[in-house]
Structure prediction request, 881 residues.
Amino acid sequence: MLNKLGFRAIIVLICVLIAFLYLTPSFTKEFPSWWSNLLPTEKIHLGLDLQGGIHLMLEVEAIKAVENHLERVVDELKQDLRKNKIRYMVLKRDGSDKIAITLIRPEDADIFQDLLKTNYPDFEEKRVMTDPSQTAFSLALLNKAKGRIMKMAVDQALETIRNRIDQFGVSEPDIRPQKDNTILVQLPGIKDPKRAIDLIGKTAILEFKLVDEENSLEEALKGNIPPGDEILYQMAVDPKTGRRTKIPFLLKKRSVLTGEYLTDARVQIDSRYNEPYVSISFDGRGAKLFEKITGENIKKRLAIVLDDTVNSAPVIQDRISGGKAQITGRFTTDEARDLAIVLRAGALPAPVKIVEERTVGPSLGKDSIQKGFKSMFIGGLIVILFMIIYYKISGAIADLALLLNILFIISGLAFFGATLTLPGIAGIILTIGMSVDANVLIFERIREELKLGKTPRASIEGGYGKALVTILDANITTLIAALVLFQFGTGPVRGFAVTLSIGVIASLFTAVFVTRIIFDYIYGHGKLKKISI
Amino acid sequence: MEFIKQNINIDFVGKRRMAYIFSASLIILTVFLLIWRGGPNYGVDFSGGILIQVQLSDNRTIAEIRKALESVHLEDSIIQEFGEKDAFEYLVRVRQTDIELTGLGDRVDQALSSEFGQDVEIRRVEMVGPKVGEDLRQKALFAIFYATLFIAIYISGRFELKWLMSIVMALSLAFIVYISSSLGVSVTWLIIIAIIVTLALCWILKLKFALGAIVALVHDVTITVGIFALTDREISLSIIAALLTIVGYSLNDTIIVFDRIRENSRRLRKRPLIEVMNMSINQTLSRTILTSTTTLVVVLALFVLGGGVIHDFAFAILTGIIVGTYSSIFVASPILLIWEGKTSKNDK
Prediction:
């Protein structure tokens, strides 16, 4: 009997020891080296709602990537048609998955179709039936190809965002793709959420465009935009009044150089004005292009356009060789730094839209932890006192089980690498209230058995035996609800489900197994005639 | 120490008519309230929109804040005080509108600090796009649905050893849900249909314990939602978590009574069920009250001390515990009796 008791006690002691081992990292800062070699060093993860941070759900507008792809195909096709001496009237993107083309000579149709088959296997061509001369075609992008492009856009966006965040410097970011072209970004402990959001959400397409100085900007602003031109704006903020003004520019639509040729972007400080600027370097091809453009357009203005906003439009003073350029503007150091990061990490293949944002400031997180633990402490204390008053020594045994239960829940979080959230703390608090339930059930049964005149030992035996089935049934249903929550919940709610599940299982162990050992130890030898209950 | 003497004998089941009338009127009230309000008061998680929690450094009236927000076109938003009195915290909520939501937190920050000329702290921003809100709502409803389904299976299997029956029930339910979802029925209706079908199936297949338990938990959740509507609280993601916890808790209570009924009716075959039930409820009464008290105490601590973010969550569980305790005594068990009358008539 006592041997078996000893065996059970050892199981409990081992569990407690393991629990403490997993708990230690969360309460100590430094470890001796022998510790980190052998033993767990993971701290309990705090959810974003407790440590502050940003949770973002980004939707990659992947259809834009498909459209960009079609535009590129249109350009390629134009060159191919020229090479094959096929003349066309219309050649343009039609919606988000078609290209419309009309040939001039019907006899070109065969060569055109051959060309399509060999060079453009991603497209399915159909003659437009309403066209009497039968020279109009509609090229439809195959669904398979469309899906591939969209997936690639999401993958690339994921990679780019990851790069940007890595360079921005966030500890333990969590970036992962979700279904429907969305990307989940979680950045714990961020101090300046707005900056991070700007950095992630910027498409960062860098283009160099020539300013059209032959046509009048005034005319264009009235609506007569010359063909091949466009109007883009520069945003200027008056540093004194904070007023924003938009300065229009008439630009040639075609970009002469893009960010694709970029190899590096760094923040530098202008020694004269002590203002930061971003210096960029091009690769070999980009450097050659840049030299050619600057050489051909001396004394003209070249606009630097970022995401369709004019950054600056300096006058080209001289041919620039060596593939280096500067982007100046009234940057703060942070702005310059962020611009350098997005340029280095590259442009997003398609714009992203924030579809969900949850930001918790660090002070609110701290508040939540404090208040959560305060209510846990006070609630727990009342329950502990209540159990002692109501059940005397047996109540104290149940209290011991309760404390062990809390220990197991918290170390369980560390063990499973789960995240503690504010609803998670609520889950622990709820478990405190509910875990004494098992003991209440057992104690009430023991009292009933005692009333029937059974000996203490038999009463304990009967009480535990009869209550066990009920306890199991009751806990399994709670567990079902918790598991469903885990499956369907997100973020904080999941944290709640995890603590609740661990709590239910741990409470079975502590309230049934552990208390039984103590009861058996005290009353097992049958010498005591009364149970303090 | 004893609150409740062991030989207590209250005729709970005899008062079932009164309890039915009381519960039914609460549920009807809830339904009317929900219809009148045009559905539950969904928070930004489900309706889409934005919620901004700001902290100012001194007291301002709601009207002052509303005026300050005019410059960012938020004067029509819902603005309310939040948390403790001396914390000067406010919630600004905007339902789905045409306003660009991205970066709105920052614009609110600027608008408030330029108007009040003081430090404004944006403590929390929750922005949910319309599509995400829709998704979350579906997920939440499905969570409630699956929890109910699994629990129904477990109870029927466990209490009446009708695992086969309960699997039949699950399959036919899944089939009906599949059919109606392919017909394009909205999720809200899907859940209502599913619950009605579950109850009907329990009835037809004579799964009486499952029927009692499910009636009790639907009862508890509905009344909690009704009280939320009455007190103008919003249903958010964490409230769904609270509702599911109530489901678990309500069952916990119900099962403990059911277990006793099963045990006692095996022992006392001769006695009429109504007597066995009363006996069982009385025997477990001490435990029911005790556990409810301890749980109530800790949740009350959370409600009072836990801070604004968790306030509504604690309120939901608080309500659920009270309603759940009541229903496990007065609602769940008497349901078993509906059957009793029928079968005995058939036997004769």
Chain A has three domains: 2-29+37-52+362-523, 63-146, 206-329.
